[in-house]
Specification:
By secondary structure, the chain is an alpha+beta fold. 38% of the residues lie in helices and 30% in strands. The structure holds flavin-adenine dinucleotide.
Length: 403
């Protein structure tokens, strides 16, 4: 089978790239290892995604925002302000929306709704343009490329050919590895427990990042529960990996009391309102994200620690710059997978992502080091940061995606 572009991975990045390329005369294939039902009806996965305004605009342009609102009218929750706390000190750094030109720093939306919206949009594109083929329940075998095409062998022996192969198969991308691209990986030795909880006290749409001693907590403000009207947040607890399972496996009443205690009762009583999900924390930065007739997008191009909430935002940025480059060159009747086009994409994407990847890695290490000197530096950084408005404005610009 021959494609112009073959995308490995039908996660948000792969599906949204297909949507962005559809309708321009390209034959697009998407290869996904999971069964079709798992991507057509994605299950709640605990991730609440903070979107920059730039990402929100991209989602609107591609029709995803509207699709998600059709699925769940209260899906998007305002992220008005953000608060950073260290240790037991109740005085933290507040990044207010007034530091940006908008009335909120960004938006929050559940990852499974992004996946559902992306799937629905791809179905719309297929219905109108018939230019996307989905191959689900298929794992890749041998992968290689030559001057003319990239080749992917499937487990059943079939060989797919494409003018450009795109890896959108997550941070530990087997496609990237098969193409021989090296990546720097950093295992933080921590795992993240995420779930949705109802709570007594309001959050006022303020997100918290609390670098407490021995644990890191985050609160992502969701809209009040439409069924009960109760206050609702996505809760993120980061602990050394060996300590996370006992909390994740507690019976619900004990878990509720444990999380309320860990949040020092600042939200009042708390009640579990979803399944719980655990993610090991590994940052990945590939040394290069392109090769002959090959490019990476999404987490395959940069695997961020979630602390600065930029993985999906960077994924969208990559989709935007790769699809623009491909469509421009394709419209001019030239080879959209030429080394010059791919190198330009790599330069642009790495320039945009590398600084925050390194800053995030440094922050995550500093704020999980329990040495007394590190605790002092952390507290000083938060307190000094609170007094330096240009610094806070820079963080606000990074959160909103508006510079
Ligand atoms: C707890 C948590 C919180 C987060 N919060 C934020 C946030 O606030 N803001 C933000 O911007 N980002 C956030 N992120 C990051 C965001 O979730 C990811 O960046 C995004 O989901 C990655 O999408 P993707 O499509 O690249 O990869 P994935 O969603 O991992 O999709 C990859 C797809 O490829 C398929 N696949 C894998 N291997 C193969 C193969 N060999 N063959 C075929 N198919 C394959 C998989 O089945 C999967 O469907 C968070 C992440 C976590 C874990």
């Amino acid at each position: 089978m021959h494609y112009d572009i073959l995308i490995v991975g039908a996660g948000p990045a792969g599906l949204i790239l297909a949507r962005a390329l559809s309708g321009k005369g390209l034959r697009i294939g998407i290869l996904e290892q999971q069964a079709q039902q798992a991507i057509a009806e994605p299950a709640f996965d605990g991730r609440e995604i903070a979107l920059t305004h730039r990402s929100a605009n991209t989602l609107r342009q591609l029709g995803l925002w509207q699709r998600i609102e059709q699925i769940e009218p209260t899906a998007f929750s305002q992220l008005r302000d953000a608060k950073v706390l260290n240790g037991p000190n109740p005085l933290g750094m507040v990044i207010g929306h007034e530091l940006s030109p908008r009335s909120e720093l960004g938006w929050l939306v559940s990852n499974h709704l992004i996946r559902q919206g992306a799937w629905d949009c791809v179905q719309d594109s297929i219905a109108i343009h018939q230019d996307i083929t989905l191959l689900t329940g298929q794992k890749t075998g041998r992968i290689w490329s030559d001057e003319q095409a990239a080749h992917v062998t499937l487990e059943d022996g079939r060989v797919l050919k494409a003018r450009l192969l795109v890896a959108a198969d997550s941070r530990l991308s087997t496609t990237r590895r098969a193409m021989g691209l090296a990546a720097d990986m950093y295992d933080f030795g921590r795992s993240m427990l995420v779930c949705c909880m109802l709570h007594q006290k309001p959050h006022h749409h303020v997100a918290w990042q609390w670098f407490d001693y021995g644990q890191t907590l985050a609160l992502l403000p969701m809209n009040d529960d439409p069924a009960t009207g109760m206050h609702r947040s996505s809760i993120v607890l980061t602990l050394p990996s060996h300590a996370i399972d006992p909390v994740a496996n507690m019976a619900a009443p004990a878990f509720n009391a444990e999380i309320a205690r860990r949040f020092a009762q600042r939200l009042g009583s708390m009640t579990l309102a979803s399944t719980r999900h655990v993610y090991p924390l590994v940052g990945v930065y590939p040394r290069s994200i392109v090769s002959r007739r090959f490019a990476c997008v999404g987490d395959a191009a940069v695997g961020m620690h979630p602390i600065t909430a930029h993985g999906f935002n960077f994924g969208l940025l990559g989709v935007e710059s790769l699809s623009k480059a491909i469509l421009q060159v394709h419209a001019a009747g030239q080879d959209f997978a030429s080394p010059a086009v791919l190198q330009r994409y790599q330069r642009e994407h790495q320039l945009a992502t590398r600084p925050l990847y390194l800053i995030t890695k440094g922050l995550a290490r500093l704020y999980t080091t329990e040495h007394p000197a590190a605790r002092l530096v952390r507290d000083a950084a938060v307190q000094i940061g609170q007094r330096i408005t240009p610094f806070k404005r820079a963080i606000a610009a990074s959160l909103t995606g508006m510079r």
